[in-house]
Structure formats: C-alpha cells, structure tokens
C-alpha cells in the first residue's frame, strides 16, 4: 500500500497534534479525502488533496517524542516534499492576543537542561562542560530570582539551557552537530508573509467574540517542551530571555526531524491563551481553543493554496 501510494506523490505532510485540531481540517471544504488510509505502527495516515495538492495527514499525539516519531515515520514511509505542522499554543508575548496565528522563524526545545548543583553559580563550569559537552553559552534560569518573599536564593539553584544533538542526513554517521534554534524553511517563510493580511475568525457565536480581531503574525521564536506551561513568571522569563512567542509541546520535535532530514517545514500555531493567565479575555483556553484551532486550519489551507510554483528541489534554511 505504501508503494502504491508513493506513485501518486510527492506529498505535503501535515503533522497535527490531536483530533481536536485535525477535525477542523477534515471538515474544511477545501480538503478532499481520497478515502485512502494507511495504518502503520499505531499511526493513521490519511490521504487527500487541498487545492489539488496531494497531502498526507497524520496525528502525532501529545509531546515532543510523539511528534518526532510521527514525523520520522511520515518521512521514512512516504515521498514527502515538505512538512506543515499546525495547532494551538500558549502565548508568552504580551504584544499578541488570543486567536492570533503565529509563524515562528525559529523553534527550540527548551527543556533540555543541565541542573546546576546548589552553591555553584554562573562562573562555575558545568559537569562535562567542554567540546561536545554541556555549555553555558545559551543562558540560564535562576530560580531565586523568582522568589515571592524577595530572598535571592533557592535550593533549586540554576538550570542551564542546552542544545540538541542532531544527526544530519549528509554527515558521517554518529557524528553530531548541536543546534538550539532550528530555522524553518526560508522559502516557506517568504511565501507565508502573504498570510499576514488574512482575515481570521473572531467570534464563537453571536455573543462571544474576541476583544481584538485576530491576525497572522510572523514572530522570531517559538519553543516546545513536554510541559503544559500555565505559569506567568516562567512565561515572562521565556519572552524576556529569548523573545519567544508561542509555547507548546510538539513543534520542536517536528522541526528537529525535518532539519536533520533536510525536508522543508513550517509551523502555524494559533494562540489560545496567555500562558499563566492575565488576559482580558475570560476563561481563555477553555473558551477560545476551538476558535484558535479553526484559525490555525484557515492559515494552513491558505498557505497550501499559495504553494503553487514552489520548487521542492531547493531546500533553503534561514
């Protein structure tokens, strides 16, 4: 079945976190199912067309490991010319609002840490620090800086952010490179600029609407971790330290696989809440997550429409 399916490729691969985010696409009038479904290793690969472009949809499941597995299976089994990842996200950027769809230029995994021994500080080297080992280059979080009683000390001390080890497709096996900020494909990013004027949904019903019309925004950075972030202090730290906007649990897994396999990718994440609270919109994620999921689908479908003329042989990263 895989061999037969590949005769109709290459495909755009759409990696989607869960059914809550997949259903709006399955119900979108521009998605036409071919009725072909291939189940493999616990994943279901759904085949269809969006604006006459062949696509494969796969649900990843929650978290970076699931996202990476689903993406690698997609790339290993099928002829894929590019990967689009979409869904909802928390927001760390106070200049953005619920319902906005973010297009991040870079993605990171922000939960690969070296947790420093209590008593050591920024001037002290980390265990195994050196060539190919841990690093203090990216920066650290000092827990004592967030004490509610003003005491600049905490037994949790510091954590230092670490890059991922990646295994590029064209490198010597078992020789790795380190990367913290994974860039999206520059051609995809350039094409996506046209989406910034796209009109998005702003109302759930006649009485429940967003306080500000949502928009599509290109942002510098997004980040993923196997953590549901609902903490205002850490949200603020991520924004101030790294200029991060969307925060969620899957995109970096997709990004790292595509980066290593040299497959162009892009991620569209619609903001469903201000991580940790503080938004003027009551109930936030509980109220507007469905609207945000719909907006991420609107942007994804329109992006695929814009892809006409894209040269799949040019894999260009920023």
From TrEMBL:
<dbReference type="GO" id="GO:0009116">
    <property type="term" value="P:nucleoside metabolic process"/>
</dbReference>
<keyword id="KW-0812">Transmembrane</keyword>
<dbReference type="GO" id="GO:0003824">
    <property type="term" value="F:catalytic activity"/>
</dbReference>
<dbReference type="InterPro" id="IPR000845">
    <property type="entry name" value="Nucleoside_phosphorylase_d"/>
</dbReference>
<feature type="domain" description="Nucleoside phosphorylase">
    <location>
        <begin position="13"/>
        <end position="304"/>
    </location>
</feature>
<keyword id="KW-0472">Membrane</keyword>
<protein>
    <recommendedName>
        <fullName>Nucleoside phosphorylase domain-containing protein</fullName>
    </recommendedName>
</protein>
<keyword id="KW-1133">Transmembrane helix</keyword>
<feature type="transmembrane region" description="Helical">
    <location>
        <begin position="55"/>
        <end position="78"/>
    </location>
</feature>
<dbReference type="Pfam" id="PF01048">
    <property type="entry name" value="PNP_UDP_1"/>
</dbReference>
<dbReference type="InterPro" id="IPR035994">
    <property type="entry name" value="Nucleoside_phosphorylase_sf"/>
</dbReference>
């Amino acid at each position: 079945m895989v061999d037969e399916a590949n005769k109709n490729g290459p495909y755009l691969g759409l990696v989607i976190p869960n059914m809550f985010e997949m259903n709006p696409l399955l119900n979108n009038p521009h998605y036409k199912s071919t009725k072909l479904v291939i189940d493999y290793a616990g994943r279901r690969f759904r085949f269809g067309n969006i604006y006459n472009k062949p696509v494969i949809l796969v649900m990843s499941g929650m978290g970076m490991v699931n996202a990476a597995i689903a993406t690698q299976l997609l790339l290993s089994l099928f002829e894929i010319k590019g990967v689009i990842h979409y869904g909802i996200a928390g927001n760390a950027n106070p200049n953005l609002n619920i319902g906005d769809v973010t297009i991040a230029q870079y993605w990171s995994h922000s939960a690969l840490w070296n947790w420093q021994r209590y008593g050591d500080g920024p001037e002290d080297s980390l265990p195994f620090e050196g060539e190919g080992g841990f690093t203090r280059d990216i920066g650290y979080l000092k827990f004592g800086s967030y004490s509610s009683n003003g005491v600049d000390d905490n037994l949790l001390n510091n954590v230092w952010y670490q890059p991922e080890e990646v295994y590029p497709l064209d490198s010597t096996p078992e020789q790795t490179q380190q990367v913290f900020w994974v860039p999206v494909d520059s051609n995809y990013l350039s094409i996506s600029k046209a989406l910034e004027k796209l009109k998005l949904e702003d109302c759930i019903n006649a009485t429940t609407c967003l306080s500000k019309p949502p928009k599509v925004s290109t942002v510098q950075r997004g980040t993923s971790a196997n953590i549901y972030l609902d903490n205002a202090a850490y949200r603020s730290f991520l924004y101030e330290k790294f200029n991060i906007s969307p925060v969620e649990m899957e995109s970096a897994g997709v990004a790292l696989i595509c980066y290593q396999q040299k497959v162009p990718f892009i991620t569209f994440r619609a903001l469903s809440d201000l991580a940790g609270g503080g938004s003027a919109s009551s109930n936030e994620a509980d109220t507007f997550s469905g609207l945000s999921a719909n907006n991420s689908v609107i942007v994804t479908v329109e992006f695929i429409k814009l892809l006409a003329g894209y040269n799949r042989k040019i894999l260009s990263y920023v």
